[in-house]
Amino acid sequence: MNSIVKNELLKRLFEAEGEPVSGQEIADHYGLSRTAIWKYVKELEEEGYEIGTIRKKGYFLIKSPDRVNEANVQKYLTTKNYGKYIRYFETCSSTQIIAHEEAQNGALDGTVIISEEQTAGKGRMARPWSSVSGKGIWMSIIIRPTLTPQQAPQMTLVAAVAVTRAIQEMTGIDADIKWPNDILIGGKKITGILTELQSDPDQVKAIILGIGMNVNQDEEDFPDELHAIATSLKRVVGNPIDRAQLIAKILGFLELYTEMYEKHGFGPIKILWEGFSNTTGKRIRAVMLNETIVGTALGISNEGVLELKLDDGSIRGIYSADITI
Ligand code: BTN
User: Fold this and answer.
1) 2 pLDDT band (50/70/90 cuts)?
2) Pocket around ligand 1 at a 6 A CB cut-off
3) Domain 283-324, what architecture?
4) What is the CATH number of domain 70-276?
5) What is the per-residue pLDDT for 65?
6) First-to-final CA distance of the chain
7) DSSP H stretches of helix in the chain
8) I want to staple 103 with a disulfide (CB 3.0 to 4.6 A). Which of 1, 197, 200, 206 is the partner?
């Protein structure tokens, strides 16, 4: 009840766009006293919202904090399902871990776990993922598509296209996708995507899509070892980016392209992905678990597998590797 009323109050404050919202009306609707509503206003102020009061008229929103909480994200949402249910944390170990638990417990398609900070953020191949507080987008989305486990790896490419389109809309910048799912600007990493699976033998139960995006970090926010290889949108664009709005855009494109993939197969996604790829046509080194090979990237197959032409003329499909260009 507590958070339902508070969220409703916040929603009305946003929708009123600075006009007063009647505390009495909300109190009546939920059968509460005006003092109870006033307490929620105080709680919101403690969370960083600036709220004004006009006698006999109600409360109005002056400023909302730079937080990627449910209310701030949902005010920008245009989706049918994705982001309708958001669990928000000031800090957590890893949104990916929480999303796995939520999915096991039956969380709905499109449920999103977002945290301002992660203390044990994880990247691909169990590498640590730097997740400084209040500067990035650290989120995991639970997707329940009708796909076989064999089709699941393509969801990584679907997500990469969705994120790249969202960056493009938000900043006007064309980012590059490095196979399979690193998103780079000027050769430096902006976003990493981690796709994990809960599956039956012939049907995916849930895809846990972890997205880590460097948004408003300054140079000193990055650990030394990342200076040469990572950057943030703020550093590229020159001004801070509204993280909540960007999350809503990512969810919008993700819902659109996931639906497209389910209905029309990988063909349309492949075309979009190849348009953003910085890998196709390049000479690359693919470091795999047991071997390293060098060749020219021909593109991706209809299954999302990277096709590499080796120096002896043979063609190899790469399913999972670290790529250097
Ligand atoms: C990569 O190695 O490039 C993938 C990085 C994925 C990081 C994100 S941040 C949100 C989610 N929670 C995690 O612990 N990891 C993913």
Assistant:
1) low
2) 94-96, 118, 121-124, 127, 129, 131, 138-140, 182, 192-194, 210-212
3) Roll (2.30)
4) 3.30.930.10
5) 92
6) 53
7) 2-15, 23-30, 34-46, 70-74, 95-104, 154-171, 233-237, 243-264, 267-276
8) 206
What are the φ and ψ backbone dihedral angles of 161, each rounded to 5 degrees? -65, -40
Q: How far is CA 128 from the centre of its chain?
A: 18
Q: What would the pLDDT profile of 198-225 be if each residue is shown by its tens digit? A: 999 999 999 999 999 999 999 999 999 9
ipTM associated with this complex? 0.99
Residue 323 amino acid letter: I
pLDDT tens digits for range 6-29: 888 998 999 999 999 999 999 999
Using DSSP bridges, classify how beta strands 283-287 and 204-214 pair: parallel, antiparallel or unpaired: unpaired
| DSSP-assigned beta bridge partners for residue 309 | 296, 315
Q: How confident is the model at residue 181 (pLDDT cuts 50, 70, 90)?
A: confident
**CB-based contacts of 225, cutoff 8 Å, min separation 6:** none
Q: Which run of H or of E encompasses 185?
A: strand 182-185
Residue 303 pLDDT exceeds 90: no
Which residue is closest in CA terms to ligand 1's atom 16?
Answer: 210
Where do the domains of the chain lie? 2-63, 70-276, 283-324
Q: Which among 122, 132, 133, 225 is the best mutation to test ligand 1's pocket, defined by most ligand atoms within 8 Å of the CB?
A: 122
The CA distance from 320 to 34, in Å, is: 58
User: Which amino acid is residue 97, in one-letter code?
Assistant: I
In this predicted structure, the answer to whether residue 97 has a pLDDT above a threshold of 70 is yes
Best mutation site among 88, 92, 96, 142 for ligand 1, i.e. most ligand atoms within 8 A of its Cβ?
96
Q: Encode 246-273: b = buried (16+ Cβ within 10 Å), e = exposed.
A: bbbbbbbbbbbbbebbeeeebeebbebb
H or E element in which residue 54 lies: strand 50-54
Distance CA 102, CA 110 (A): 12
